[in-house]
Amino acid sequence: MTGNKDLFTVTSEHLNSGLRGIPVGTCRTSFVTPEEGVHYCGYPIAELAGLEPEDVVYLLFNKELPDEASAQVFRTDLQSRGAVPRSIDAVFSTLPRHGHPMDWLSVGIHTLGMEDTTGDWKEDALNLIARMPRLMGLLFRYREGRSADIPDDDLSMSMVERFVHTLALENVDRELMREVLSAYLVLHMDHGGGNLSTFTGKAIASGHATVYASMAGSMNALSGPLHGRANQSCLEFVLRVGTSDPDEVEAFVRAELAAKRPVFGFGHAVLRAEDPRATVQFALGERLCPDDENFKIIRTLREVAQRVLAENPKISNPNANVDIASGALLHHVGFKDPTYYTTFFGWARVAGIGAQIVDERAVLRDGKGTPIYRPKYIAEAQSLRHVV
Ligand code: NMX
Ligand code: MLT
Predict the structure, then answer these.
(1) Which of 94, 145, 186, 234 is at a distance of 20 to 30 A from 317, taking alpha carbons?
(2) Does the CB atom of residue 224 touch ligand 2 within 6 A?
(3) pLDDT average, residue stretch 94-100
């Protein structure tokens, strides 16, 4: 963006509004439009959903999809970065097992950083992305108390295969799990520059904290129930609904609103239509598990909750968001405990946030990077006074 043009007029109504709509920078990895949702480097998300996660990571970093040869070189490069130090096992074996998995993820990322930070933004971002599948697998294993007989990492596998292999769950369809997780990762990797976790990570990195410290901060931001943890809350909500009967679902939704509780999986700060990431996941569910009880409930919710929320003009977007369907799909393929769902969101988002941190630190402003974040706050209820 060149020149010096007026982009936005800030009025007193914008104060204390969570920076809603106020332009603060440029983003090279993705943009979100209110009606069509997220596009990665120009591609509508629905067109990318079937691609391999590694190819989409390549896109976010290189701004082009890879051809076959570049894809292979990139996969080999990620594999060469993937080894996770043994100290993760030691740290995970001491964390409180009742601690939330997002707190474990944040600690795990910090631990990786303590072991091996190069100080080069791109190197560190790619190293972290490459280590996430094993970190995730170990997180599940130790927190679930399944620390015995963990299979060795197999760096020749794809990212999702490495996670599924480390997890080594019995009685699950690993291919189905791989398919759902691959789509999940691609859909959740990036969502413009201003979502809370991405903004937080870039803000931390602007003070030249490491990629790992910045990403741990991002994960903490993502762990809030109005942001990433809504996917956990959403499946918990679906389990509480417990019926796909439209009248009963409607009564449930109305009771939640009357009790001043959010209807999880609906609404968005920017979108004003159904999130295409939800649309893609509904289509996946119709193909893979149309008769799954939770999927039947979200199919009803998609219509009923939208209609009920639309009655309230103060709700800017009554439509389904990204979190409505992911829980039902994850549950169907074997992830029965929703407490873990936000870690999948975090795993995916490490790619987008990593690429955005690299752009902000090493590409924007002719490679100088943005200065340290420092927005202005206006004093309220403070008149000058003195102690003596
Ligand atoms: N259920 C109940 N109330 C809602 C909902 C909802 N799904 N969506 C918006 N509202 C309320 C909101 O709480 C606010 O009320 P008040 O004026 O009393 O503070 C009012 O409607 C206006 O909010 P909006 O401008 O429509 O939305 P905002 O940008 O403030 O918040 C969300 C966006 C996503 C936080 C909000 O829609 C929400 O809480 N949704 C449910 C939780 C959820 O699914 N979050 C996941 C979002 C996706 N993600 O990954 O981050
Ligand atoms: C996201 O994917 O980060 C969420 O949809 C929230 C957002 O974009 O504000």
Answers:
(1) 186
(2) no
(3) 98
